[in-house]
Specification:
By secondary structure, this protein is mostly helical. Helices cover 64% and strands 3% of the residues. It has helices at 8-23, 26-44, 60-83, 86-92, 95-99, 106-139, 147-174, 181-199, 220-234, 265-288, 312-318, 328-332, 355-358, 361-373, 378-393, 396-407, 412-415, 421-425, 428-431, 437-466, 470-494, 498-510, 531-555; strands at residues 47-50, 54-56, 243-246, 254-256. It starts with 7 loop residues before the first helix and ends with a helix.
Length: 556
Amino acid sequence: MSTRRPGSRALFHMVKADFLERVRRYSFLLTLAFSVYLGYAVYSGLIVLHLDKYRGVNNSAWVGSVIGLVGSLWLTLVGFYVVKNAIQRDRQTRVGQILATTPIGKSFYTVSKMLSNFAVLAAMIGVLALSAIVVQFFSGSAAHINLALLLAPVFIFGLSAVAVSAGVAVLFESLPILRGGVGNVIYFFLWTFLIAIGAGSISDGKTGYQAQPFTDFTGILSVMTQMQTQVRSLDPQYNGGASFSIGNMERTTKTFLWVGMHWTAPIVLSRLMLVAIAFALAFLAALFFDRFDPARAGWFPQKKPMPNPMPAREADAHSLPASQALPLDKFAVGSLAGSPRPQLSAAHLAPLATPASRSRLLPLVAAELKLLLRGHAWWWYLGAAGAFLGCLFSPLESARTGVIVFAWLWPMLIWSQMGTRQATFATGSLIFSAPHAIPRQLLATYAAGVLVAALTGGGLGLPLLAARDVAGLGAWASGALFIPALALALGVITGTRKFFEALYIAWWYVGPLHHTPPLDFMGTTAMSSTPLRYLIAAPALVLVAYLWRKVKLARA
């Protein structure tokens, strides 16, 4: 009896089912909200594209190009963390074990997951395209909306770029060492490297828009070089400078009419090449995919564990002939013939809750801290100690502007656990059956997260305290309180670590690393520090986490 291999129709239904399952989650709504925010950031001027003192008139060509670059830049970063759970979800729900018994091949499965990842990211690009229409409509600079000029950069640059992110997500999930938090951190630096390849040659003022389009992951080089050529034709004194940044650091004084992209053959082929790379990554992932076989869960095949041998005394008892069987009452106390009968003592159970136990928050905080820190290799603790000592012994200005930024990146995977453990291990019904479990458990988890911030970045807090730098100490305290609060709120709301990891690393890159004033939650410089904002946001986020969990449990 022959079995038919699944065809394109089965692939379509599998991708459709996986996509529909994802869009029913709260996390998907949050990602769509992020796409809307990106469009608003362009409209409000938070995200700015300028060429020295020049910026384009808000016509369809300019708005479409800017939002297209926003999508290819930021959705490739945030979107990766959104979709990097497709295979893991099948493991947790045991759907993968069912699929493993079907004729579905490994390459068929990985390609379907890549396509479902792409469908989710394409929905985010679609929302961004709608926001481009809204931005163009309310800009007031151009009455006529040209949909071709407006939407072509959004879809061509955005869809081709997120396709690569969809393929990388499947590949990382297929590799044992990259399917967890380590892969999330590595992807961020991979994304930074891909951005740098394309953007590195913008500032030198190259005039050829066809310059190396096949290394232009986001399309920023293709867009910028054409804009540079047009501005240079209008102003021979233009020196070739260009910038695409968050925050209007440099005010523009001149405008020019951007006529839109000239879609040359190298540019189009380079975008098609990215789609081909996405499929190649999916097929490569099939080579490492274990097909949900526990024996192949790691890098090397594992031998099936042998059943534990029966204890010797129990084995002797079971091997006795029927005529020599021991009385049943002797087995009731676990003794054999000739063995002394053990002495049993009465068991005493502690009360479920007493007035004294209700106030014992410190042991609960210690337990939560132990849960957060357990399971990490020795080198992680060595890195945490290095972060503390680096902040402590570096010059105060260097520690505040640079060392603390990386010191508070190191425990990102620790903070991302906060608020998700009950959903991950299905222990909510056990934990929340205790009296006052919601406020006590949330406060203990939050306090443990703050202690992690103090253990890694406390080396900066101590010199600031010794120097009586009230402003600097307030900025440091706001970061130490805000980061765990953000992790706790997002963990409780989404039930997964992915959203915090995606948002935090993007926020970290834009805000503290580049000292962007509205987004620098670590207060790395006096100019970018806004501690009061984050000191207020921290308790507000903890309150949101409490109310969300309380309402959710009330509806359960």
